UniProtKB/TrEMBL annotation:
It comes from the Bacteria. InterPro entries: DUF4837. This is DUF4837 domain-containing protein. Pfam families: DUF4837 (PF16125). It comes from Dokdonia pacifica.
Length: 325
């Protein structure tokens, strides 16, 4: 009996220790899209360190008709980074007077959070650490924002049965988008922006040879895009075309594990009232079916900033999944 009581007492102490040793559950992170809380001393922020951080993290976004920063930077001193503010979804912290170091951490003070930690013995050291790792930093924050946007989209999804049946792909986009056109080889979805324009997604396919030729060039994708979109996207009876004078940018990319050409630039309507805006276009290579599936997002919203809306379109496009693996 005595041994039994000792065993029960030991078990109770063990369970109590287990409970107290567990970390308290973290609250969810907060923050606006593409915003980084910059936990930096005021003197550093107003000097060369701040200039360097801003020159890279707040550089103009490619492919937008007017200048907007890559990220919105919100500076705060370390002593103020407490409580609710510390739950920021993205933050970058600098420490002066310590050995040079760099790390990217997840869920430090909140769930679904990305934190970048930089330290250096002096300003030059901090700047060097940041510049050396700037691509990793941008990628980490962009990945976090992409996941956050896609999670928000998943909360209210549009049915995509017809998209699956026509193109053999699935895509996650919100119920706020309506089908404007559903034809044999062209789908067009649109979301109205209250009093200020609309956001659009188009899906179509072209044979591999329409893009893959011995003398590949940006112009070939531009011509392909203008031909298909120009024939199917009606905007005030004008001709929907790519603005060649602003030289669309072309990159190699990947969606659903497949090679893709990514093109960014601006579109305009010719022979109609003046309309223009940004677009992002992905031509996804599907060798098994001898085709490219082309998914594009574009915006007409002349009175609003367009960075975050374009980011939503990019997040939707990157959710594309092929049913025929």
């Amino acid at each position: 009996m005595k041994k039994l009581l000792v065993a029960i007492l030991f078990l109770g102490v063990f369970i109590s220790c287990e409970k107290t040793s567990k970390k308290p559950s973290l609250e969810g992170s907060v923050g606006n899209t593409n915003t980084i809380k910059m936990v930096v001393d005021k003197d550093l922020w107003q000097g060369r360190v701040g200039d360097t951080l801003r020159s890279i993290l707040a550089a103009p976004v490619d492919g937008l008709p007017r200048e907007e920063p890559l990220f919105t930077l919100d500076q705060i001193t370390p002593d103020k980074f407490t409580g609710f503010v510390s739950k920021s979804r993205n933050f970058l912290s600098t420490k002066l007077g310590e050995p040079s170091s760099f790390s990217i951490e997840e869920d430090v003070t909140a769930r679904r959070q990305t934190a970048v930690m930089i330290s250096g013995e002096d300003e030059d050291a901090i700047i060097e650490v940041f510049k050396t790792n700037k691509d990793k930093i941008i990628e980490a924050f962009k990945t976090r924002e992409l996941k956050n946007t896609q999670a928000r989209i998943r909360s209210s999804l549009k049915k995509t049965d017809s998209l699956k049946a026509t193109f053999g792909v699935n895509m996650r986009f919100p119920t706020a988008y309506d089908y404007v056109k559903k034809e044999k080889n062209f789908f067009w979805m649109r979301k109205e922006i209250k009093r200020s324009g609309n956001m659009n997604i188009t899906v179509y396919e072209v044979p591999l040879h329409a893009i893959d030729q011995d003398t590949f060039s940006v112009a070939r994708i531009v011509r392909m895009r203008d031909s298909v979109s120009g024939a199917n996207v009606g905007l005030n009876q004008g001709r929907f075309v790519t603005e060649l004078s602003l030289a669309p940018q072309l990159f190699e990319s990947e969606i659903d594990g497949r090679f893709a050409w990514e093109m960014k630039g601006t579109w305009e309507v010719r022979d109609g009232r003046l309309m223009a805006g940004p677009f992002i276009n992905y031509a996804i290579r599907d060798e098994k079916n001898n085709r490219y599936v082309v998914v594009e997002g574009f915006i007409f919203s002349p009175s609003l900033d367009q960075r975050d809306n374009m980011f939503e379109l990019e997040a939707i496009i990157k959710s594309t999944r092929f049913l025929d693996k």
